[in-house]
Amino acid sequence: MNGERYEPVPFDVEATTAEWLTDPEFKAAYEALDNEFRLFDELLAARKNAGMTQAQVAERMGSKPPAVARLESGGGKAKHSPSIATLRRYAEAVGCRLEIRLVPR
Description:
The chain has helices at residues 13-20, 24-32, 34-49, 54-61, 65-73, 84-93. The chain contains six helices and no strands. By secondary structure, it is mainly α.
């Protein structure tokens, strides 16, 4: 690397998101994804509360760590919503039960 040293650039996710939310178009798109963001937050919180790594969850699910990483981030090449069966296996792996509710608006 020609003796150059990598210096990470600080990035404040919360401040940046707050700034972007001042754009009405961004805000509408962001709010449309609110339920998905909450799902991913729930998955991460459950795994952390169980004191487990993604690899440990994957092993209990009979899956691989990259699949758990995609599930927790909502990403992947072919983005799609996880099945109820997948969410149930994840919940069981982290010592939880899956609960799905319909909430009046």
